[in-house]
Prior knowledge:
mainly alpha, three-stranded antiparallel β-sheet
Amino acid sequence: MTTVPRLVPLLEQYDFARKRLIDRLTGPVVNSGNGMDVAVSAMTDDEYLWEPVPGCWSVRRRADGPGLQATLLVGAGDWGRDATPPPHPEPAPLTTIAWRLSHLGEQLALRAEYTVGDRKLTRDDYPANGDAASAIAAFDAAAEAWREALLAADDAALDTVGLSTYPYGSDSENPFLDIVWWVNQELLHHGAEIALLRDLYRARTS
């Protein structure tokens, strides 16, 4: 199936941002943005769960309960991601790499599910991983699922309001092309946040 022309630049942006984030997490090099490769080490479990300040939201063992200002742990398995029903705390808690990667992966997996899947999964069906390698693999699988959902869209689908019925956003009220744009900015800005946390962690331990 030929990719819809209007989707091509957004898909290219998505692919670049996804690869750049995966490379930033796994190494051995990452594109610096100007075509130069910069050496980077693979993320460790300690770094994945590092809390740069007290009171961070993170991914935690379910047996330990939620963190400060969180009231529940979402996700499948023995670990869960700090969360609370609206209204959310103000100011928002700083979040760890673990929290951000889980949040991104869940969005991608569930949006794919609610676009081309059975539209049954909830946040508690997406795995919350306590180690870096499993979290990266889960994120990459979710990113691929969303990409496949994009490739399934024809030109009419891009203008369809509610093509995605992802229940944790405004997807059902917006044209699908707007959701594609929104997901790209989520990947770009959370990817940048994760990269900054990696830099801060390296400076802390050097």
